[in-house]
Each structure stands twice: as C-alpha cells, then as structure tokens.
Design brief:
Layout: E1 2-9, E2 15-20, E3 25-32, E4 43-47, E5 50-59, E6 66-72, E7 81-87, E8 93-98
Antiparallel strand pairs: 1-2, 1-8, 2-3, 3-4, 4-5, 5-6, 6-7, 7-8
C-alpha cells in the first residue's frame, strides 16, 4: 500500500489536501454530502472544480476505527483507483492507495 495523499480535516467535516501519484499532483477536497440512499456516498471528492470520486464512511471490524473508503475515477484513468482515508499521527489524514 502506498500513500497518495495527505489531508487535514476542517471544522465542517470536509478534508483538504493533495493527491500525488506519478501522473497526478493536485489539490483536492473531500466534502460531506447528504445521503440520497442506503448505498449512496457520504462524501464527494473534487479537484480543480471537477468531481473526481466519492467516499463512504466505514469502521474497522476489529478496532472500530473510523475511515473513509474512497473511489477515484477519471476518463484519463485506465481503471478506478480505490483508497482509504485514515487518520495519522498529529491529526493529519493519509490517503492510502490499494489494489
């Protein structure tokens, strides 16, 4: 697993930070949204004013630690990118890519 982003949480529950990969280096926001249904996302991910993905609130089975499961997608991607936003040390949040 590789870290592809670093975010800070705002008082309104949104996250701001950077997503960095070999092909992406952009500022991004992860903002909470009102759920439209049981399976609808809890968050929208945007970069440069363009929606880049969505996120779902989850809790780890063993530790009950909360995290956000993120799916990033763009026409330039060969496939969606799945990642997890977890709280790190010192209050920052890490976006961890997984395959």
């Amino acid at each position: 697993m590789a870290q592809i982003g670093t975010f800070t949480r705002g008082e309104d529950g949104s996250f701001t930070g950077m997503i960095r990969t070999l092909n992406i280096n952009t500022k991004a926001t992860i903002k909470p949204i009102a759920k439209e249904g049981e399976r609808s996302p809890d968050y929208r991910v945007a970069a440069n004013g363009v929606e880049l993905g969505a996120g779902w609130s989850k809790a780890a089975k063993e530790t009950s630690a909360e995290y956000i499961s993120v799916k990033l997608d763009d026409p330039s991607f060969t496939a969606p990118v799945y990642a997890t936003l977890v709280q790190g040390e010192k209050g920052e949040h890490k976006l961890i890519w997984s395959r």
